[in-house]
Amino acid sequence: MVASFLEYSFNRSVNNYSHYEIILSQASPFVKTAHFISSCQLSKMTPFRCRTQIHGLGVVFSPFFGYTKHGVEKMDQNNYRLPKRKDGQKTFEHIIETARKLFSKKGYQATSINEIIEKSGIATGTFYLYFDDKFALYSYLLSKYRRSIRKAISEGIKGAHTRHDKERLGIRAFLKFAWQDPLAYRIIWESMFADQALFREYYETFSRDYVRQLDLAVKDGEVRPDIDLETLSYVLMGISNFVGLQVLFRETLTDRDLDHITEQVMKVLKSGMFTKTE
Q1: Of 187, 194, 185, whose CA–CA distance to 109 is shortest?
Q2: Are 231 and 261 in contact (CB under 8 A)?
Q3: Cα 111 off chain centre by
Q4: Domains parsed from the chain with CATH numbers
Q5: What pLDDT digit, counting tens, does each position of 195-209 carry?
Q6: How far is CA 161 from CA 136, 216, 270, in A?
Q7: Could you give the CA distance from residue 69 to residue 65 in angstroms, rounded to a whole number?
Q8: Most buried residue, 19, 76, 203, 221, by CB count within 10 Å?
Q9: Residue 249 burial class via C-beta count within 10 angstroms: exposed 0-12, middle 13-18, buried 19 and up
């Protein structure tokens, strides 16, 4: 009977406790959640989320990223609701943009919901129409940045056929994205203070996707087979992250500058930095 209600089971350890959450399929217009205590009796239903600690189920609750019942990881935020009408979309985006500026200027912890509401010029009820809380808004903003970065890189490497060219064009696309949206770094790294698990998941997800692509390059003979691909994925992400800071610290940036910086990175990737090896 319980299984008939189950939509998603989440798979993450939280403080060494096991948590279990089910989402009722009848939940409309807001997501309703039902939580079970260790005896698997229905505990409580609310229009939004509530959390009840249980033990010994072997399934653990993650507030942001979960796994579908088929075991495929899926980012599924149930603590925000997307607008259905165009006027609502405009208000929704306005709230997001206001919060983006406040988070980047003051930080996540120092920014209050009331301040976001006031600066957005909306009623309190309008905020909660779309978001359960401040964290819901922030997590949506972070996921939006993830999508935007992936889109920029995907468009940047379009037409590239080799791993070398994909790395070169991908790095250039990321550097250009960072230059055009200097607030991106502040928003992404602010997740360290908002929720470390969210920060970790952000980069782990990028790493897993990177590893899949690198593995194909290894099979095609483009990348050395004796390198740990997970480590390599973080090396490559680290290069992009910190060379991105090099770009942000500049007063001006031309296409020629972008090309030069990108080629310097590729020179290191291709030939290394040492003149002699033991």
Answers
A1: 194
A2: no
A3: 20
A4: 1-78 (no CATH), 86-132 (1.10.10.60), 147-271 (1.10.357.10)
A5: 999 999 999 999 999
A6: 39, 12, 17
A7: 13
A8: 19
A9: exposed
